[in-house]
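Bumping with the actual sequence this time:
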Amino acid sequence: MAADPAAAETKKTGSSAGSQVGRRAVDARLATPEEIQACIKKQEELAAEGKVYDLGRIMVKTGVITASQLKRLINPSPDDSLAPSVQQIPGFKIMQKIGAGAMASVYKARQLSLDRIVAIKILPKRLSEDVEFVDRFYKEGQAAARMNHNNIVQAIDVGEYGGYHYFVMEFVDGDTVYDRLVKNKTYTEEDGLKIILQIARALEHAHQRGLIHRDVKPKNIMLTKDGTAKLADMGLARQADDVAAAEAEKGRAFGTPYYISPEQIRGVMDVDFRADIYSLGGTLYHMLTGRVPFEGPTPTAIMQKHLKQPLVPPDHINKSISTGLAEVVERMLAKNRDHRYASTSDLIVDLERVRDGKPPLEARTKLRDGLLENLADGAEAEDYYNDSMHPSQRRHHAPAPAASYPTWLAAVAGIEFIAIVMLILILAFAK
C-alpha cells in the first residue's frame, strides 16, 4: 500500500540530490507530490533519449517552481547555517544541524548551565524580518511553555541573538511517526493505539488549558527510543477563546491539507478542540492503512474531498483492523464536528476500551443519541444511519425493510375485506 503521497517521490528517486530537491519542494508546499512525479517521469523520458537533465531544472522548465525557488531549495537556509552569531547563542554550544523545514532549522546543542542536550529551532534571517513569522514563532514558544506533560515536547527558552530568533526545547532522541510511513510501513493496531492514546492525552492536557494545536500530523509526533510519543510543533497553536486572533484569521485555512478538518478549511472563527480530534483521526487512519484519508493532485482538491467526499472505512483497506477501532476512527473523522466526540476525554475512553478488547462506548452511544434526536425532530432515521453509522454496524442496526407481498395477494386481501363489509351491512338491514 502507498504511504504518504509526499514519500512516493523519495522512494522512486532514492537519496540523490534531485530527490532531495523534489522532497523539499513538497515539504515547502511549492509543489504537489503529483507534480514532482510528473517531472520525474519527464526526466526519465529525456534520459531514454540520451538527454540528461537534473530534476530541479525540469521543475523550473515545466513551471512547477521558479528559478529563485529552486535556488532556495538547493541551499535551503544559506543564512541560518552555522554562522558565528548562531554558534554564540549565550549559554548554549551548537553541535550539529538535525533538521530543516520550510520555516526554520533545528540544531542539536548543549545547554552549558545544566550540562544537558537540547534542541534549538532557529528562524532564518530572511524570515526574521517578517513580523508575522516572528510573532508566530514566539507564540509557539509561549504556547509550549504553558504545557507540562510527558507527551508534549517541553519548551525551555525563547529569545533573539545576533539577529536570529531561537526557540530552545527538549531534545527527543528518536524519529517521527512520519519516518516509518515514508518507508511504506504501516502500524499494527496495538502499536497505533499505543501512540495515539499518548497523543490524545497530550491533547486533552492542552484542551483543558484552552489551547488547540491545529496541526496534528505524523511529522509532529516524535517517538523516543523507549516508545514514548511526544506532540511537537505548536507553531499553529491558538487559544480557543482568542477572539482577536480568530478574527484576523477568519476565512483562511490553517493546517496541513492531508489532515485538516473541514471547519479549518472553511476558515470559521470558532475552531475548537474537535479540529484536533479530526486531525488525530486522520493521522491514525494513515498509520493503520498506509494511506491518507483523501488524496488529490493539489491541496485544493484534497481539501474539497475533506469537505464533500465520503470516507473509505479504514477496515475496508486494512482487513486486520478491528470493527471497534474502525468505528472510533470514523467518529473522529466525521465531517460534521457535532458528530465527533464531545470531548477529548470521551475519545480516550473509547481508545482505551478498544485497546482492552472491549467495544467502543462513546462512539455507539453518540450514534444512538443521534438517531433518537433525528426521530424526535421528525427527520428520517435512515439519513442519519447512512451518514454516521460504520458499515459493520449497519448489519446489526439497519432499519427493518418494509414488508413486501405479491400484487395478486394484495388484491385478494382487498376483495375479501370488501366482501366482509358488505355481509355486515346486509345482516344489519335484515334485522
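The C-alpha cells above came from a reply further down the thread. Residues 407-430 form the longest helix (24 residues).
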